[in-house]
Amino acid sequence: MAIHHLTKDVHTRSFLSLVQSSHAKATKHSRAIFNTVSVLDYPVSLLESVVNESVFWRKALIHSSAWFISYDIEPFLPSILDHSSFPSAYPPSRDRVLLPLNMYFAWIKKDSDGIMQEAARESAAHLRQLAIAEGQDVADAASYGNHVIFDTPLRRIYGDNVPKLQAIKAAVDPTNVMGLAGGFKF
Cross-referenced InterPro entries, in alphabetical order (predicted)? Predict the structure, then answer.
């Protein structure tokens, strides 16, 4: 655990302890946006680009009340999809393992919402283009639903599974109770 860190509070804890932690308190009054890029691999050149991206946006957004810019690399084992041969909602295709790159931008002022959201979109598009330029076939890769920006089309997350998921939703929730909850709507 000798990784450089902003804060360090790593230990086994209850969920209540996590919610009451200093990190949770520090982010209590923040506004934030997630976005993601799916890649097939993390070559050193792409990792260097992620570092450059974080430095660029930190400087570019400092006057827009940005206080936290994070890019999280999520490498998975190549066997991650081997646990089942049954189809799943995500990923829409099991023919390749997609590695999500999670972006998290946090800021204070409400009038910076549009600037920060657009920055998250631009950064994701730029990193996707860099991955494509390195030969990764990710132009139409599904995006991981837990990290995508709020207005991502369902098809971008679930691909050709959207009609089937809509049919399942109609069958099990005909009165649209889940429409009262947040998240993506089928």
Answer: BBE (IPR012951), FAD-bd_PCMH_sub2 (IPR016169)
